[in-house]
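Blinded run. Sample ID left blank on purpose so nobody reads anything into the name before looking at the predicted structure. Input follows.
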Amino acid sequence: MFSHVYVGITDFERAHAFYSPLMVALGLVTKFADAGRGWAAWKQADHDRPLFVIGRAYDGNVALPGNGQMVALLAATRPLVDRCHALALANGATCEGPPGLRPQYHADYYGAYFRDPDGNKLCVVCHTAGPN
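Blinded prediction complete.
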C-alpha cells in the first residue's frame, strides 16, 4: 500500500543512532544512509519497498512533529514490542504508553508508544494472539 514513510528529523547523527538499533531489532536492513544529505532508509531484506525514511525537512526549515500523526511499526511478537520499546527509551525516546494490550483496538492488539528525540510519535505493535 505504501511506497515509503518519511519522518522529519533535525539532527541526522542523533536520529540515525536512535533508529538504527530499532530497525535492526525489527529485522529491517539499511537501503541507504547519507549523512551529507541528512537522510537514511530501511526496508525488509527481501523487498525494495516500502521504505521507512528519516531525513531533514525538504524546505530546509526545522522538522516539527505533527499533532495526531503517528507511524506504527509492525513487530512479529509481543516480546519484540517490549524489546523495541526498551531500545527506544534507552536511545533517547520518551514513553507515550508502555507495552501492553489495547483491547479497545482489537483483542490481540499489543502495542507500545514513544516519541523519538525530535518528538515524532511512533508505535511498535504486534497483532497476533498469545505471549509469542
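Unblinding after everyone has recorded impressions. The helical segments are 12-25, 78-90.
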